[in-house]
């Protein structure tokens, strides 16, 4: 659950940080397994590659189910599910979960967008959706930490367009939003989580540092808001089988 201060911040700014949502051993366990699994998959060309306008690429791994592996157990961990249920305010399910990976000097930028910009296109009608982004590495400006426009969630959904394989907010609306809201870099320690509304405008820079910047993202939706038409391989309703805090250490 969020504290009342965190809840106030989420409602006002569209996001809040939960320090050490995962403990150090849990974060190390998730990071070590992810590095071993996903660097191998990257080498075999099995990951999604997201280009940016500078020609750099950031890597993405998405899972379509939440099973008994470490990733599924994080997504179903009672601490994350309690936060999602508290904020959505009704029965929730796991909409998607994924790893976003920026390797040193290679990882590219994510351009400005709202997640609901593309989830709406995926046929979810209402913004009863949110994400929990957990840092696996120190996430700082130099390695391309998240940037947000606090308060921008209150704009509601803006129109998005597809550019270079990314779904991004339309240019002149972005310019207006950048005039209206102050930009904030969200620096986090490993294990910290950013909980953010699906309508919060966010982006991140390329990783120009010597250090990786990996983040695990679990996104939740109201059961009643599941896609009204099946257009994607992910996001379909599946019962959320909650596991005790820290169950991921058993995987
Ligand atoms: O990891 C990042 O820097 C951004 C990821 C993101 O915005 C997304 O997956 O929609």
Order of helices and strands: HEHEEHHEEHEEEEHEEEE
| Strand percent estimate | 25-35%
Level of helix content? Answer: 10-25%
In CATH, the homologous superfamily goes by the name q2cbj1_9rhob like domain
Overall 3D shape: globular
| Average pLDDT figure | 97
The CATH topology comes to Jelly Rolls
Give a short account of the largest sheet: 7 strands, antiparallel
Number of helices: 6
Structural class category: alpha+beta
Instruction: Quickly count the domains.
Output: 1
Instruction: Give the second-level CATH assignment, the architecture.
Output: Sandwich
Distance between the termini: 24 Å
Total strands: the figure is 13
Structure notes:
This protein is globular. The protein has 251 residues and is an alpha+beta fold. The mean pLDDT is 97. It is built from 6 helices and 13 strands. Helices cover 25% and strands 27% of the residues. 42% of the residues are buried. The strands form 3 sheets. It has a 7-stranded antiparallel sheet. Strands 5-12-7-10 form a 4-stranded antiparallel sheet. Strands 8-9 form a two-stranded antiparallel ribbon. Strand 8 (160-163) and strand 9 form a beta hairpin. The chain has a single domain, classed as q2cbj1_9rhob like domain (Jelly Rolls, Sandwich), CATH 2.60.120.620. The site of 2-oxoglutaric acid (AKG) has 8 residues, from strand 12 and strand 13.
Q: What structural keywords apply?
A:
single chain; 251 residues; alpha+beta; Jelly Rolls; 7-stranded antiparallel sheet; 4-stranded antiparallel sheet; 6 helices; globular; binds 2-oxoglutaric acid
